[in-house]
User: Fold this.
Amino acid sequence: MTSTITPDMSAPVAISVEEQQFNDLIEADSRIEPRDWMPEGYRKSLVRQISQHAHSEIIGMQPESNWITRAPSLKRKAILMAKVQDEAGHGLYLYSAAQTLGATRDDMTDALIAGKARYSSIFNYPTPSWADMGSIGWLVDGAAICNQVPLCRASYGPYGRAMVRICKEESFHQRQGFEILLELMQGTDEQRQMAQDSVNRWYWPALMMFGPPDDDSPNSAQSMAWKIKRHSNDELRQRFVNMLVPQAAVLGVTLPDPDLHFNEETQQWDLGEIDWTEFHEVLAGRGPNNAQRLQRRRDAHEDGAWVREAAAAYARKQSARTEEMAAS
Amino acid sequence: MTDDTVNIDSAEADADNHGHVAVDVTTLDAELIEGPSVATADIAEYALWLGDDSLILAQQLGAWISRAPELEEDVALGNVGLDLIGHARSLLHYAGTATNRSEDDLAYWRTEPDFRSLHIVEQPNGDFAHTIARQFIVSHYLFELYSRLRASADATLAAIAAKAVKEVDYHRDHSKQWVLRLTQGTDESRRRMVTALSDLWPYVEEIFRDDPLIERLEGIAVRPSSLRPAFDAAIAPVLAEAELEIPRGFVASGGGRTGKHSEHLAFLLAEMQVLTRAHPGASW
Assistant:
C-alpha cells in the first residue's frame, strides 16, 4: 500500500506508510524488530555486517586456539580455553541474529567456506609466539571493543542485544590480554623481547581493523544514516589510539609509530601514516594465513559432516517416534 | 553497557559478570588456598592420580576447540575441558602441598614416568566418536568416584569432589546424548561409534584396579574396584538403548598409576610443556 504523504511537488518520491514508520523509528532512536517492515537495503546491509562479524568470531578462534595446548601455565590455559570458547558462543549469537533477517546458517557457513564471505582481515596474521595471546587481547579485542560498544545501540534489536552480551565478554578478553603482556614485561629479558616483538607486529594491523579512512569507506555513510553504525572509522581509530598510549606506558612497551605525538591543540594523539597497501593486500587474499584459515574451517566442517548428519537423522527419528506415540 | 568509553578499568568492573570466563577459572577455590591443610605423601600421591587424569583429558579436549563438528560442540567440549582443568588445578595444588611444589611445577616440570594418569585419558582424540566414547567411559567413572569421595575423611578431597561431581554429572549426560545420537543416527555414525567403543574398551579395566596405595588410605581414598558395580549399572541402560554390546576382546595391561604410560603421553607432554620448559624460572 503506497500513499503519497506529501503532495508537495518538491518531494517527488512517494514513500509508503511502512517506510515512513521505519524512518520514524530510526529517527526516534527506537529499535527495529524482526517483524517490522524494513527497506531491503537495510536488511541486506545488516545481514552482510552481522554475518561478517560472526565469521570473524569463528575464524578468530584459530590464531588463539593454536596456543591452548601450549599455554605456559594452567591458569593461562584455562583462561585461553574459556576465551576461545566465548568466541564460538559469540559466533552463535550473531548467526542467530542474522537468521532473524532470513539468512540461514547453512548459507552463511557455505559462503564462508567457499571463500565468498568476508571476515576481519586481522585473523589472517599468524601467532608465532605466546605474547601474541597478549597482543590479540589487548590490541585486537581492544579495537573490536571500540568498534562494538557503539553497536550495542544499533537500530536493529537482535543485533544490538547480541552486542551487549558480546561486549561484556570482550572487555574481559582485553583485560586478560593486557595482563599477559604485563606479566611478560615484568619477566625475563627474553619475555620482554617476546612482548615487544608481538606488539610491533599487531599494532598497525589492529589500527586497520577500523576500516579504511572515512573518505574511502563506501558503506559507512548509509550505515550511519540507518544508525547501524554510530561513529566513523577515523573517529573510532583516534579514540582507540588515545586509549592505548597511556596503557602502553603502564606496560612499558613502545608503540611502533615514530610519528606518534600529542597534539596540544586537539588534545589527541596524532598518528603516523598507515600503510593501506598492506591492508588491501591482506583483504585481497594475499595475507600470511588466508588460505590456512579457510582450509582449517573447511576441514572442521567436512570432518564433522557425518556427526551433523547423524544428529539430524536421530532428531527426525525421535520426532517420528513421538508422533507415533501421540497417534496411538 | 551503552557508554562508548571503554578502558581497562571498566573492563575490570565487568570481569565479574562476563560470560564463560568465570572468576573461578582464574583463581583456585578459596578454601584450597587459605586452608591450612598440607597433604601427606600418600594423600598427595592419590591427588596426583586424580589430578593427572583430569589434566590429560582437559589437554586433549582443548585441542578440539575450533575443530569441532559444529559450533555448539566447540562450546560444549570447551566447557567439559574447562571443568576438568579446574579439577586438575585443585587436585595438583593440593598434591603439591606435600612437597612444596605448585600446580604448574607438577604439570610442567615432571617427566613422563612421574605422571600418574590412566591409559584411557591418554588415548588420542581420534574422530568425534572416539572422543565421545572416551568421555562417556571416563565421565561415568568420575561421577561414581566423586559421589563417593564427597564422604572422604580428608576435608580438602571431599570439598573438591563435592564441586566436581555436579560438573561431571553434566559431562556424563552430554556424552550419553551423543552415544545415543551416533548409534541411532546414520549407518556411518553407528559404525564409527561401535568401532570407537571397541577401541576404548580395553582401557576400562585399569580404571578399577586397586593399588597398594589404596590400602593405606582407608576412609580417605575411594577403592577403585568398589566403583565397578555402580559404573556397570549406570552405563547398562544407555548401552541397551543404544543397542550396543560391551566389546569383548583385548584388555590393555595399563600401569599408569605406577608411571608406565601409553605411547601417546610423551607426545602430549612434549606439546604441553614446550614453552614453559624453554623459560625456566619465568612467570606467566
